[in-house]
């Protein structure tokens, strides 16, 4: 099997790598994170001009027509730069839901604006009590004439602060934890009855807790079939989990590279610490952990292209392995950098924080280990 990237994929990778190197160095990122917005709108327009926002979408919708491997290349390179602009919540989550569940009119109205950099989106799915069970939903959308009234609260909404449109998961029938009876709605973030509490996470990503107080929704805001949202949500979350793993693999590889370079220059007892056999063994362990994660990522990508539903078991295994191996890699990176590894001035700790947040998005290692065991036992 050929694991080499195509010429187009290599061009995408090189383009993002050059952007990170030339326009997104560590000091630039720190300034962006410290700004009031927590992102740079000019960078988002650059993403649009370079075509990165169009890559996952079909040519019929104005996109590049790329697949999940193309998106994985983007996520891996953005991870290496710790890019805080909302590519994942807008393009992968919001755009993925519109692509899968939207009508032709909905796709035409929103995807073109997204691709051109004129629309920022978000997916509001998580609630205080739901933890990793997305179907545990108290937010309701009750019939109101030809439309609906939306009430409830969503928490930790990625890009909720800047989103102009949101896809909201709400219950239209059934009990709190029923899989059936959940629906998706496209909600204007400026609608009457919406309030947002914005805050940064430990990795500098901006999120929001969003309250919906009897928000009026027109009938055309329904995304997909009424009461059957979870099949679409599962498909988008499965793909998003693979792409988060790609971002994690990019960070893990970069941490290994930075740590290896440091051990070659840091002197102790008159020699580089990289010459110590004990540290060499530890670096071999982290390299093996990285290679294991990358190999399982490639397997998940291949299986997803063949049969997305059949890749679910491998996705659970991948998320479990990323959780375990990333902890080893960032732990060793911090330790081998000594006290510097814990400082905000050095990027090592910030990469570690991003990996921690990736590990808790859509389920941590314990959650996915249990799901993997269930599916393996059933098989």
From TrEMBL:
Name of the molecule in the record: Acyl-CoA dehydrogenase
Domain Acyl-CoA dehydrogenase/oxidase C-terminal: start-end pairs: 242-375
Native organism: Luminiphilus syltensis NOR5-1B
GO terms of molecular function: acyl-CoA dehydrogenase activity; flavin adenine dinucleotide binding
Family: Belongs to the acyl-CoA dehydrogenase family.
Superkingdom of this protein's organism: Bacteria
Cofactor entry: FAD
Domain Acyl-CoA oxidase/dehydrogenase middle: residue ranges: 122-215
InterPro entries named among the record's database cross-references: Acyl-CoA_Oxase/DH_mid-dom, Acyl-CoA_Oxase/DH_mid-dom_sf, AcylCo_DH-like_C, AcylCo_DH/oxidase_C, AcylCoA_DH/ox_N, AcylCoA_DH/ox_N_sf, AcylCoA_DH/oxidase_NM_dom_sf
Domain Acyl-CoA dehydrogenase/oxidase N-terminal residue range list: 6-117
Keyword Flavoprotein attached: yes
Keywords assigned by UniProt, alphabetized: FAD, Flavoprotein, Oxidoreductase
Pfam family name, one: Acyl-CoA_dh_N
Listed Gene3D superfamilies: Acyl-CoA dehydrogenase/oxidase, N-terminal domain, Butyryl-CoA Dehydrogenase, subunit A, domain 2, Butyryl-CoA Dehydrogenase, subunit A, domain 3
């Amino acid at each position: 099997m050929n694991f080499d990237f195509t010429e187009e994929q290599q061009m995408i990778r090189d383009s993002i790598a050059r952007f990170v190197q030339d326009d997104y160095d560590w000091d630039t990122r720190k300034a962006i994170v410290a700004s009031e917005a927590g992102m740079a709108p000019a960078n988002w327009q650059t993403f649009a001009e370079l075509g990165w926002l169009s890559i996952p979408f079909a040519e019929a919708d104005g996109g590049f027509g790329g697949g999940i491997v193309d998106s994985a290349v983007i996520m891996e390179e953005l991870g290496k730069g710790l890019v805080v602009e909302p590519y994942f919540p807008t393009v992968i989550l919001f755009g993925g839901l519109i692509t899968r569940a939207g009508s032709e009119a909905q796709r035409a109205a929103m995807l073109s604006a997204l691709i051109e950099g004129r629309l920022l989106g978000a997916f509001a799915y998580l609630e205080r009590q739901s933890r990793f069970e997305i179907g545990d939903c108290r937010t309701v959308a009750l019939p109101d004439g030809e439309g609906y009234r939306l009430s409830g609260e969503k928490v930790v909404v990625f890009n909720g602060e800047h989103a102009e449109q949101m896809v909201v998961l709400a219950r239209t029938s059934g009990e709190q934890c029923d899989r059936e009876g959940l629906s998706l709605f496209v909600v204007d973030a400026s609608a009457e009855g919406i309030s947002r509490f914005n805050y940064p996470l430990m990795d500098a990503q901006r999120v929001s807790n969003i309250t919906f107080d009897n928000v009026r929704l027109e009938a055309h805001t329904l995304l997909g079939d009424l009461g059957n949202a979870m099949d679409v949500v599962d498909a988008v979350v499965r793909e998003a989990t693979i792409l988060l793993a790609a971002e994690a693999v990019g960070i893990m590889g970069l941490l290994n590279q930075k740590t290896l370079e440091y051990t070659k220059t840091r002197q102790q007892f008159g020699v580089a610490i990289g010459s110590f056999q004990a540290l060499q063994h530890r670096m071999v362990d982290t390299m093996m952990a990285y290679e294991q994660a990358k190999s399982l990522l490639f397997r998940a990508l291949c299986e997803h292209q063949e049969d997305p539903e059949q890749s679910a078991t491998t996705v659970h295994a991948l998320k479990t392995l990323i959780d375990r191996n990333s902890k080893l890699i960032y732990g060793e990176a911090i330790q081998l950098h000594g006290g510097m590894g814990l400082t905000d001035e050095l990027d090592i700790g910030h990469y570690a924080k991003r990996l921690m947040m990736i590990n808790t998005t859509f389920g941590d290692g314990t959650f996915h280990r249990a799901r993997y065991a269930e599916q393996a036992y059933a098989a």
